[in-house]
Write a structure and sequence with these properties.
The complex is a heterotrimer. In chain B, 69% of the residues lie in helices and 1% in strands. Chain B is mostly helical. Chain B starts with a helix and ends in a 27-residue tail after the last helix. Helices cover 74% and strands 2% of the residues of chain C.
Chain lengths: 500, 340, 325
């Protein structure tokens, strides 16, 4: 890429303040046509703000934006789209109650007279879905599709506008490995078609794989832009956090104790069948599998959120029958759910109130909650978990994702479970908080608990877990010991290349 | 498998609930009333359903957009007394137009409160419900206003064509026009997007606020029309006419299958709901069922329908975000058949 | 009716918090000042006691409605039906059950109405507006059928005399309201049930995953409102000595108004019973001022409605201003 490049986008000296916060300070970004330009940085580094400025949702306080060499002034989302900027967010921007075709043409449906030209709408959808090699019926209701199919529709929607610049903001966080491969193929084709792709991700492995150049942001400032070919993930992490992380995934070596959880042949129609696994004290056990393999469903069933149709669950040697989360908690199980915003936090309640929710009856003892007692309990945990800032009366939605996750984790530690089930505990969490969370998990195991952990990030599973169970299409296909575990081995099992 | 069949049957029952309901009413009606299927009876059903029908029709786009308008009853009262009070002053037709204008004006006030002050429509229209119900009483000193020209409104409920009277023809025409708008035009489709996923609509460049304003203007206009038609037909403008109309209107919309949470609904379904409710009421009256007993049946009907809807649409399994297609057969080892 | 952009339930810093904590007491003081200017008879003990007395019954409903709003149940529109049930049964059953048992029966019937609401909304997860519209229609119809659509008269009884009487110069009705408020304030702010209500209203799924009994909580709020509506009906019937099915008409809106004026969001996740007490007092004083100021009583709705818009509008403004990151 040394010949004269066509610069698709140039953002210079961008600054943006919000009341009390300087979100961006003199940030530069230059993206070439036909490259995948990754942007990395911790949460709060300013990536999202920068992209929202590009998309016209925010106006910069200072700085200039040039698209294809033409300077743009004050603009709004619609103008940004008309100028060829496509945005694909982590959260899907689709309408479940309209058809796939209508979603793709949303906001600019072709007309015939005063009416929607349905044939043209369908044709447009067929064309662009075909280009993406996605086998999706344009006439089906969007809400009936799977998440990864919906993501393809989202991409199709953006591509239908023939953008020259496409921004992906954490696109893989709800995708498994297989769907991620499909996405990367799509991105690769975009690159070859001369589109400038901006790719934001916390997953440095992905950046290494798909990116051509990478820009690192830290605390709202531009730190460095360079070719991906010349950097290692470690180096990127150093630039992002501005300090050395000794090890990305530290691991305590502990001797497994007695069996905490034994699951024998549990099934749930349509989701998983005949799953048998166990977790010992002091042990961190991984549960791997592609999205849709039944990982989350197994976790929910063990905790009691969904009933099982067959099989039995044994905790500390006793068969338990869990029918809801309350029963699960009483039995000594805790579940940190994958969907933090949807199932983890109560946004309007304070850190204190979120913390004590699962155990509020115990704290209330007789009838009344004693505020001093409650505060004391919460304060000690906030210190231990390094929740920042340590203000326990602030509503939880005023905290970053990593801190929210610490609170979700912490509220379950307060319930003193024997078994801690973690579903994607570090998704969308910045590097520093991730290390803190791993430390908390490690301490829990050290103190005698058993951990069952789901993660889509294989390096994390390999580093943290003592054993890994692998699910494929609802069936347990493999159990791999720490010593034998490799990314390739887990992937082979997860993609069904190992017989059950 | 048996359970599955029951569920399928239940689904079908809910999907075609309007049809089921209409058929049931028709059967019981024809058994208990000799000439239920006469043109006269059907004409009367439609004619009497018109007032609630206009309210329900106006409510439909508001609900599709994910909002609610509780003030339609008060708008009806205000439009009615305006029309009748202005009849001697500016003449019959201008007075009727003034009634419609009052409806649109109150709709605009609702829209302004929701869009400018960002107050949720539930609270905003609750407030305007109180305000305009109160204003209607103040303006009339709590007494109904009588029309100086009682003859003018009579043709509205006369015989027009087959089962239609002029006012019920207006109602059905409005429902069809609204259907065409919602189903076949870009702005109609966009309205569903606004109610179903406001963020997605916004990022697609759809100006949600403009749509929300429009729906409140429509519900104001339609509630105004209901008030004008009712007051002209009865030659009276009652300040409390609308107070009892909100609940039947919502019931009719819900029977039709429009979702209160936004994103789903149809004006033809509302038309069906209005007709079904009207026919039911008619049947009760023919059989001398007292009004309060009718309320019991209507309430039970509403609860049963909505419960059925809940039970079959939600298959009882809380879905996680990753819960997808994995269709698991009883454990059989699997190879690499599918693409890896 | 989703809380799309409007009612964000965030509790935020400085100006917003200050405004929302002080707004209710300030409004009450302002009303008292205005009242004293408007009419010399306003700021007298007997007038204020009368105002409270007249609003104590509907105030009870507002206390229950607070829980409904906080747990994300929007509103209970079956209140008039439950009030009517409580009132009609209390008087109708007197002849064969005696006054005490009849009042108990009235409470029980209204509570059962609340249980039905609770089952539909909490356990079957039906939209509260539709569900309570439906149960309201059914229950009101039943209550009318019970008495054939007319009016019921009560017999003089020691219970009725007690309800109409006073203790320490303060009417018994006011005592009952005050005691209920004193009990329910800590129930919401300092018990597990109260915390559950806040959590369920704040994020239903997360509450469920945090081992909160979500269905029970939501149902509980509606049962409580049913019970308090029944109590309202019983008290009204006993103090009036007669009851019609329309006895509670409009009470649902008065109660919702008091909750909203107090500053509790109808979309759940925050709120307090004490604020609702403030809301009840504000609405009561406004009604009284309108009469004393010589305005027609029909103007009450106009003024209350306008105040709802202004109060909520200011609140939303401050929340949005403070809520920006």
């Amino acid at each position: 890429m040394t010949e004269a490049h066509h610069i698709a986008l140039r953002m210079t000296n961008i600054s943006k303040s919000f009341p009390g916060v300087k979100a961006l300070q003199d940030v530069e970004l230059e993206v070439r046509a036909g490259e995948v330009h990754a942007i990395v940085g911790e949460n709060g580094a300013g990536k999202s703000t920068l992209m929202k400025i590009l998309a016209g949702f925010y106006q910069p306080d200072e700085g200039e934006i040039e698209v294809d060499g033409v300077r743009v002034g004050h603009w709004n989302p619609r103008e940004a789209r008309d100028r060829g900027i496509g945005m694909i967010y982590q959260e899907l921007n689709l309408v479940p109650d309209l058809t796939v075709a209508e979603n793709i043409s949303l906001g600019g449906m072709p007309r015939r007279g005063p009416f929607v030209d349905h044939r043209a709408v369908t044709q447009r959808a067929k064309d662009v879905l075909g280009e993406l090699q996605a086998d999706i019926d344009p006439a089906s209701r969007l809400g009936n599709l799977s998440i990864s199919q919906q993501q393809l529709v989202e991409i199709a929607k953006v591509m239908a506008d023939k953008p020259s610049i496409v921004v992906f903001d954490e696109p893989t966080s709800s995708l498994g490995e297989k769907e991620t491969r499909v996405l990367f193929d799509v991105i690769d084709r975009m690159r070859r078609a001369g589109i400038a792709v901006i790719y934001i991700s916390h997953r440095l492995q992905e950046v290494m794989e798909i990116g051509d150049r990478v820009t690192v942001l830290r605390d709202g400032r531009h730190i460095e832009t360079r070719d991906v070919a010349g950097v290692t993930p470690d180096h990127m992490v150093r630039l992002m956090v501005g300090r050395d992380l000794n090890e990305m995934f530290p691991k305590l070596d502990l001797e497994p104790g007695e069996r905490v959880l034994a699951v024998r042949g549990i099934s749930r129609e349509g989701q998983f069948a005949d799953v048998t696994l166990d977790v010992r004290a002091h042990e961190i056990v991984g549960l791997a599998g592609l999205v849709g393999s039944g990982r989350t469903e197994v976790a929910r069933a063990i905790f009691g959120l969904d009933p099982i149709d067959a099989g039995e669950i044994e905790l500390r040697g006793e068969v338990i029958r869990v029918r809801n989360a309350r029963k699960g908690r009483s039995a000594g199980i805790a579940l940190v759910p994958e969907d933090r915003k949807g199932q983890g936090i109560i946004p309007g309640l304070s850190v204190r109130e979120n913390f004590t929710l699962p155990v509020i009856q115990r704290i209330a003892q007789g009838v009344v909650i004693f505020a001093r007692r409650e505060r004391a309990i919460v304060r000690s945990l906030v210190d231990r978990l390094k929740v920042n800032p340590p203000q326990i009366e602030r509503p939880l939605n005023a905290f970053s994702g990593g801190n929210q996750q610490k609170v979700v984790l912490g509220k379950w530690l307060l319930a003193k479970p024997d078994l801690l089930i973690l579903d994607e505990p570090t998704r969308g969490v910045d590097v520093g908080a991730k290390a803190d969370i791993h430390e908390i998990i490690g301490e829990f195991a050290r103190d005698g608990g058993g951990v069952l952990m789901i993660s889509s990030e294989l390096p994390e599973l390999l580093a943290v877990c003592d054993r890994i169970f692998v699910l494929h299409e609802g069936l347990l296909v493999d159990e791999i010991a720490r010593a034998d575990a490799t990314e390739e081995g887990v992937m082979r099992a997860a993609t069904g290349q190992v017989a059950a | 498998m048996r359970q599955l069949d029951l569920r399928t049957a239940g689904r079908a029952a809910v999907r075609y609930r309007l049809l089921v309901l209409l058929v049931l009413v028709a059967i019981f009606g024809s058994i208990t009333i000799g000439d239920f299927f006469s043109v006269d009876t059907l004409q009367s059903v439609l004619n009497r359903a018109t007032v609630v029908g206009f309210l329900a029709l106006g409510l439909t786009p508001v609900l599709i957009a994910g909002q609610i308008d509780l003030s339609i009853g008060s708008i009806l009262s205000m439009a009615g007394i305006t029309t009748i009070a202005l009849q001697p002053v500016i003449g019959n037709i201008p007075a009727a137009l003034a009634g419609l204008g009052v409806g649109v004006l109150i709709g605009a006030i609702n829209a302004a409160i929701v869009v400018i002050f960002k107050i949720s429509s539930l609270v905003a229209t609750l407030a305007t419900l109180l305000i305009f119900a109160s204003l209607a009483l103040l303006l009339t000193d709590s007494q109904p206003v009588s029309s100086p020209d009682p003859i003018f409104g009579i043709p509205l409920t006369g015989d027009l064509l087959a089962v239609f009277t002029p006012r019920s023809a207006m109602f059905v025409a409005a429902a069809i026009l609204m259907f065409i708008w919602l189903r076949f035009t870009p702005s109609g489709r966009n309205l569903y997007a606004v109610g179903s996923n406001a963020a997605a609509a916004k990022s697609a460049g759809i100006r949600s606020n403009a749509y929300i304003v429009t729906t409140f203007l429509i519900s104001g206009l339609f509630a105004g029309a209901a008030g004008v038609l009712q007051s002209l037909s009865t030659a009276t403008g009652s300040p409390v006419a609308g107070a009892v109309m909100l609940i039947p209107a919502i019931t009719a919309v819900v029977i039709g299958g429009t979702r209160l949470e936004g994103g789903r609904g149809s004006s033809l379904a509302t038309l069906g709901g209005v007709v079904a409710l009207g026919a039911l009421t008619m049947m009760f009256e023919f059989n001398g069922v007292p009004a309060y007993t009718q309320a019991i049946y209507t309430g039970v009907l509403l609860i049963v329908l909505i419960t059925l809807d809940r039970l079959v649409s939600d298959d009882g399994r809380p879905t996680s975000r990753t819960l997808r297609r994995a269709r698991v057969e009883p454990p059989t080892p699997r190879g690499i058949q599918e693409e890896a | 009716m989703t809380a799309t952009s409007t009612a964000s339930t965030t509790r935020v810093s400085a100006p917003g918090t200050l405004f929302s904590t002080l707004s209710v007491p300030i409004a009450i003081v302002a009303l008292l000042v205005v009242g004293a200017i408007v009419s010399p008879s306003f700021l007298t003990v007997s007038n204020l006691v009368n105002v409270l007395n007249a609003n104590a019954a509907v105030g009870l409903v507002a206390l229950g409605m607070t829980f409904v709003a906080v747990c994300g149940g929007l509103a209970d529109l079956s209140v008039p039906a439950n009030v009517a049930m409580g009132a009609l049964v209390t008087l109708g059953a007197q002849s064969f059950a005696g006054p005490f048992a009849a009042a108990g029966l009235g409470l029980l019937v209204a509570t059962i109405g609340g249980v039905v609401n609770g089952l539909l909304i909490g356990y079957l997860r039906i939209n509260p507006i539709i569900a309570t519209l439906g149960t309201g229609a059914v229950l009101l119809g039943l209550s009318q059928q019970l008495i054939g659509g007319g009016i019921v008269y009560g017999e003089p009884s020691p219970l009725a005399d007690f309800v109409k009487g006073s203790m320490l110069e303060i009417p018994v009705m006011v005592w009952i309201f005050a005691i209920a408020a004193l009990i329910l304030t800590p129930v919401l702010s300092r018990t597990a049930f109260g915390r559950w209500n806040l959590a369920v209203g704040g994020n239903y799924q997360a509450a469920e995953a945090s081992a909160v009994p979500v269905r029970f909580t939501k149902a509980g709020a509606f049962v409580l409102t049913g019970l308090l509506s029944g109590l309202c009906g019983v008290l009204l019937a006993l103090s009036n000595g007669q009851a019609r099915p329309i006895i509670g008409t409009g009470y649902e809106f008065v109660a919702i108004t008091a909750v909203v004026i107090g500053g509790t969001s109808l979309f759940g996740g925050s709120g307090s019973v004490l604020r609702t007490v403030g809301g009840v007092i504000i609405t009561a004083l406004i009604g009284n001022l309108i009469i004393l100021g010589g305005l027609p009583t029909q103007a009450t709705g106009l003024v209350t409605g306008a105040i709802v818009v202004i109060a909520v509008g200011i609140d939303v403004y401050f929340r949005r201003k403070g809520g920006r990151e």
